[in-house]
Amino acid sequence: MIRPALISLSLLGATAALADVPRVATDIPPVTSLVAQVMDGLGAPESFLPASADPHHVTLRPSEAQALAGADLVVWIGPGLMPGVAESLPALAGDARVLELSAAQGTERLPFRQRADFGAGHDDHDAHGDHADEGHEDHGDEDGHDYGDTDPHAWLAPANAAVWLQVIAEELSTLDPENAATYATNAAAAQARLAEAVETATADLADIPSHDIAVDHDAFQYFERAFDLHAVLTVTTTDDAQPGPREMAEIQERLANAGIACLLVESEASARQLRTLGGGEIGFVVADPMGGWLDVPVADLYPAMITSLAGQLAACGK
Ligand SMILES: [Zn+2]
User: Fold this and answer.
1) Cα of 14 to ligand 1 centre, how many Å?
2) CA end-to-end span of the chain
């Protein structure tokens, strides 16, 4: 008689633990990937954005607002990436805890780049007003809303992903202490996968002849820094502003003359557009900063994005 009683008790225990797993809403696929790895075996995060949404321009529709309202925890990059969501998100998230990854302690933040920062030789500081060279590092720390000077694509630094895996595990453990050991184990496993991906990517990019690349959308600054690449030219800016006619003419001239081995573009459409400008000498890598070209389960997306991006750039530069 004792055995069945014990079995039903442990079943009850398991059910209770599952029922307490927090509902997590995430923004972009790389963040969903990090959270999915930490929640492995317990639950899965749900993105509050459509997979194809462009975070720079997205606003929330009522259906997406519902995903936020039902969440216990919202994990997102922050207002710098999604200015159209920044105002409404705190209210829509209701009682949910909101984890703003770009504001997490230990996150590396790089200053917003202007087109002129690539050495194009003009001083057209248009979209973002004056940018002095000093003082960027300390912005955005305190309230997380002074985001104008920080490049928001911080997930493309694997070191930031490593910091965030830890923070995500801690947040989940606070909400769900019963499963804290699982979150910690999962985060450690994710760290190991991440370290392996970085090792592979570093090896792939170590012996390419030139580390100079050009980018369509200026979203890869963190990746460049992590892997010793150097973008010498960008087409659109960090906040995805399109070039004007004068800038486009300059870009065309530089593409034809800068000896760039490889141009990183976000879509086949922009590859076609830019191919005509570059004189046919330039190799193209089609890869967006969300890992959108990958066909893998979302938990695998982050490490796959790092290795695939590095592998493609290495192949292109050879
Ligand atoms: Zn972007």
Assistant:
1) 42
2) 71
